[in-house]
Specification:
The protein has 380 residues and is of the alpha/beta class. 36% of the residues lie in helices and 14% in strands. It is built from 13 helices and 13 strands. The chain has a nine-stranded mixed β-sheet, with helices on one face. α7 packs parallel to α13. The protein is globular and about 55 Å long. The termini are far apart.
Length: 380
């Protein structure tokens, strides 16, 4: 058995105040917390247990936040030393999701030396990015993020981009895509924004129809120009599912339950999107990660992902999405319950649009060709 853990060494602490951030308010879970960073004992416990819990020869450490650079470079130097000390002969890999604001030459030399894969959060060019991604004082951040990307390129650090698709940038799919290409991104993750409030869905959230158009527009150009060069998890997953391969992203997997979130005090939660008291599984100072993984609650949580909405039962593309992420199941189904994925129509529209391409790519794959060779058969 194995698990994925998103470690948050600074908890919800961040040096930005993005309008749509869902994690900043997690600070209310720990009103008496005085520490700003995971202590040495917790870090060592985590590294030892995480390596021990994996039944594979490769172990992935995923660092996120809040903003992980606030832990300081010395924290991650210590983490790497501990990983090497307790590796058990396994290959260690590190990913690091950051807003980029604090990156400098020293950080980038460290990332390059230890082969970190760095994720940069960026929502497009200055006009699109600065709409919602601001400093605590409300100032724009795009210039500093773009400078961080230049530093990563300068030091030959492998990086990808994470873009939150919202009400504004969803109207400019090609502009977003071309801008990320210009930055040098060769792996683009697009995360649709969905904020539910007491009044309903926030105005920042992307509308399902706009999300569908966003994905289809980018796909049209990607499959003709950049397939095999640029990776887009949403597209890669769709192809994998058509070929009967394991899900590339957890949101479209048949079940979940083993993608945990680790807070700075050692608390383990069921998922990054379910960090709340009812989903607290335990603490690594009191029990081993392997024991937490074996809990019935993990299995129950994972099995609960199977969609119950009547629409899903009769959907011909259910095998591609399995109802999507449970956090997005807030739309009313035909039986009047909040159990349907808010982006159901978006996904279905994209899956139907891309089906002919996916079937052609599958045929190429089955006949010994590269799926990326599809671009040779498509007109511009």
């Amino acid at each position: 058995m194995r698990c994925h853990i998103m470690a948050k060494p600074t908890g919800s602490l961040c040096n930005l105040a993005c309008d749509y951030c869902f994690y900043l308010d997690k600070s209310t879970l720990y009103p008496h917390r005085k520490s700003r960073c995971m202590d040495d004992a917790t870090l060592e416990n985590y590294i030892i247990q995480h390596i021990d819990a994996q039944d594979t020869d490769q172990v992935l450490f995923a660092w996120q936040g809040g903003e992980p650079t606030l832990a300081g470079l010395s924290f991650f130097q210590k983490a790497v030393d501990l990983q090497q000390r307790f590796s058990q002969g396994k290959t260690i890999q590190n990913t690091f999701q950051t807003n980029g604001i604090l990156l400098n030459d020293e950080w980038c030399r460290f990332f390059h030396q230890h082969a970190f894969l760095v994720g940069i959060s960026i929502d497009g060019d200055a006009a699109l990015h600065d709409k919602y991604r601001k400093t605590i004082a409300g100032k724009p951040t795009h210039k500093r993020v773009a400078e961080a990307v230049s530093l990563l390129n300068k030091h030959h650090v492998e990086f990808n981009t994470l873009t939150v698709v919202n009400a504004v940038n969803s109207c400019y799919p090609l502009e977003v895509y071309e801008y990320l290409k210009q930055l040098g991104s060769r792996h683009m993750q697009f995360i649709p924004l969905l904020e539910s409030t007491k009044e309903g869905i926030s105005e920042r959230s992307v509308e399902p129809e706009k999300l569908a158009t966003f994905l289809k527009t980018i796909f049209y150009h990607w499959v003709r120009q950049d397939i095999g060069i640029i990776e887009i998890p949403f597209f890669e997953h769709t192809f994998a599912a058509w070929c009967g391969l394991p899900a590339v992203t957890c949101e479209f997997a048949p079940s979940c339950g083993y993608a945990f979130a680790l807070e700075l005090n050692g608390d383990v939660y069921q998922c990054d999107h379910f960090v709340s008291p009812e989903y607290l599984l335990g603490n690594i100072h009191h029990e081993h990660i392997k024991d937490i993984m074996a809990r019935k609650a993990c299995k129950t949580f994972g099995e609960a992902k199977q969609p119950q909405a009547p629409e899903c039962g009769s959907c011909r593309v259910k095998f591609l999405c399995h109802g999507g992420c449970p956090k997005d199941r807030i739309a009313l189904s035909s039986r009047g319950l909040s159990e349907l994925n808010y982006f159901c129509s978006s996904c279905k529209s994209f899956f139907m649009y891309s089906e002919p391409y996916m079937l052609m790519m599958k045929s190429l794959h089955e006949n010994g060709y590269r799926p990326a060779d599809i671009h040779q058969f498509l007109a511009d």
